[in-house]
Specification:
Distance between the termini of chain A: 44 Å
Shape of chain B: globular
Oligomer: heterodimer
Largest sheet of chain A: 6 strands, mixed
Radius of gyration of chain A: 20 Å
Radius of gyration of chain B: 21 Å
Strand content of chain A: 25-35%
Largest sheet of chain B: none
Number of strands of chain A: 9
Structural class of chain A: alpha/beta
Helix content of chain B: over 70%
């Protein structure tokens, strides 16, 4: 496993919000004068490094920009300014069953998902069985994924992501959905991934998970890096910070 | 743009899988599967042939072949544009979560239709062959059939370009789909599918305007492609011999059969590739905004 790393320099991301909701040409023409485009700056200059083999956790309140940050790393969005340097293959786990097509069966989705993530068809055929075994989905693997429960989707998504020889794992709050046994299995797999030199960036509201796996913790607040430190130190501050007394700020 | 092309090449395996998936869904998930994608053109061509060979071009043999030669590429264009107009919208939930070159979505829609088109062309040639065996001496295939690969390439370029434009725009304004479907419907009438470009040349409008109408008509790349497919594959249509029945043809017909025009063909090729390059450029300009459209 090669050494994947992430270097983020002064990353900014701005979204355009349209309050009039122009979804058609009619509304666009009718409301052209009255349309209100508001710029919302979600990330305001974030600099962050994830070194090879390191596991970094990002914590912060809802709307602090955590998920946007991961989406930018997964190249779903293009940065407004700033740079992202990524070395190695990324396996993004941004949501339950991300990238699964509801009408395809589990097996077809495994194959499709793996190829999207950059594997060749042959590589994917070779590891399909391992992925099915790890997910413990059993016979349901031949059913369309729209019939899956959220737990099953999470299992399948996680299984694919850890079997594509990624160098970097991006995890957005997905470790908490499986049952206890599967969660333990996930952590075991993540430990194995890390032991092999894999790099992880993950977002979580579960401080236990952060304490368990992270080497370093980044506190994101209002689109900026508020504090960086060891998990214990940051979690202590973050939880002591209280349950949002200053929501309006 | 070169960087984007390189990126596209890196994802060629995914494109292949997406095309396979499209074809699989089309052919596997319904009981009649394969038949469905040919039933529609078969019925359409059948009805058109019946009407046009019995009521309008009564003396023209092989009217069905002439209609099919133009209708198959037209259908490829039409179906691809309609399919790809939905391609990005239908996958928004996917592209919000995972990266791959977004242009793969319309490309896959076009390519799976392209596979169908090649299939249909094969069947068409089978039909011509059977026709020849049944009544030899009327072999309709011309030596200019060697132009066919080039025409297919032009069609593919034009269709890809159009699909990229439509799929990108439809992502922001879903009316685009409806506008395009009306335009495609109208396009059918201004293309020489159920008639011939000689029909246009012999029209009063054209003769009175000193061939201006014919020139404008043939600048439409799809119209000229329809003409070129007919002329490349099938025997020339001679309006003097086989003009519309009932009309006093010697009086009206001033222009005989028109051979393949290299000038129009070059212009068509140029337009097709221009549309492709423009479409690719436009798509790449807009593609990052698909997931964050206001």
């Amino acid at each position: 496993m090669s050494q994947g790393y992430i270097k983020i320099r002064d990353l900014r991301k701005e979204f355009l919000l349209n309050t009039s909701g122009a979804g058609s040409i009619k509304t666009m023409l009718l409301w052209w004068k009255r349309r209100k485009l508001t710029h919302v700056e979600v990330l305001k200059g974030v600099s962050l490094e994830v070194n090879p083999g390191e596991c970094v956790a990002v914590v912060g309140k809802n709307g602090a920009g955590k998920s946007t940050l991961l989406s930018l790393l997964a190249r779903v969005y293009k940065p407004t300014s700033g740079s992202i340097e990524v070395k190695g293959r990324i396996a993004p786990l941004l949501e339950l069953g991300a990238g699964f097509h509801p009408d395809l069966t589990g097996i077809e989705n495994i194959y499709f998902n793996g190829v999207i993530l950059g594997l060749s068809r042959k590589e994917m055929r070779d590891r399909t069985q391992a992925i099915i075994d790890f997910s413990e989905i059993g016979d349901h693997i031949n059913a369309p994924t729209r019939t899956y429960s959220s737990g099953m989707l999470a299992r399948l998504g996680f299984s694919v992501a850890v079997h594509i020889d990624a160098d970097i794992l991006l995890v957005d709050e997905v470790l908490a959905v499986g049952d206890y046994d599967f969660e333990r299995k996930c952590y075991a797999k993540i430990d194995e991934f890390r032991a092999n030199g894999g790099t992880i960036l993950f977002v979580s509201h579960q401080m236990d998970a952060v304490r368990r796996v992270a080497d370093r913790c980044v506190w994101l607040k209002d689109g900026q890096v508020h504090q960086v430190g060891t998990p214990d130190q940051i979690i202590g501050e973050y939880e002591g910070h209280g349950p949002a007394p200053e929501l309006g700020s | 743009m070169l960087g984007e092309l390189k990126e596209l090449w890196r994802y060629r395996e995914l494109l292949l899988v997406m095309v396979q998936r499209d074809l699989k869904i089309r052919y596997k998930n319904s009981a009649l599967g394969f038949l469905w994608s040919f039933l529609n053109p078969l019925l359409t061509v059948g009805v058109m042939t019946f009407v046009y060979s019995n009521f309008i071009f009564q003396k023209q043999p092989q009217m069905g072949a002439y209609i099919m030669a133009a209708y198959l590429p037209f259908m490829f264009f039409q179906q691809s544009i309609m399919d790809s107009s939905q391609s990005v919208i239908a996958s928004v939930s996917l592209i919000k979560k995972i990266y791959f070159p977004r242009e793969l979505l319309p490309l896959a829609a076009v390519l799976s239709n392209f596979v169908n088109f090649l299939f249909a062309l094969t069947i068409f040639f089978g039909y011509l062959l059977v026709n020849y065996l049944l009544n030899p001496g009327s072999f309709p295939i011309q030596s200019t059939v060697y132009l066919l690969p080039m025409l297919v390439l032009f069609s593919l370029a034009l269709t890809l370009g159009g699909s990229l434009i439509v799929s990108a725009l439809n992502t922001f304004y879903e009316d685009v789909k409806y506008i395009v479907s009306i335009l495609l419907y109208l396009l059918f009438f201004i293309c020489p599918i159920v008639y011939f470009d000689e029909t246009v040349a012999n029209s009063k409008l054209n003769l009175n305007s000193e061939w201006l109408a014919y020139k404008i008509y043939n600048l439409n790349p799809i119209a000229h492609l329809c003409t070129a497919y007919k002329k490349a594959i099938l025997a020339p249509y001679d309006p003097k011999v086989m003009g519309p029945a009932g009309s006093d043809s010697s009086d009206i017909v001033q222009v005989g059969s028109i051979p393949i025009s290299w000038n129009y063909l070059a212009a068509t090729g140029f337009t097709c590739f221009f549309v492709l390059i423009f479409g690719y450029w436009l798509f790449n300009r807009l593609k990052w905004r698909f997931v964050e459209r206001p």
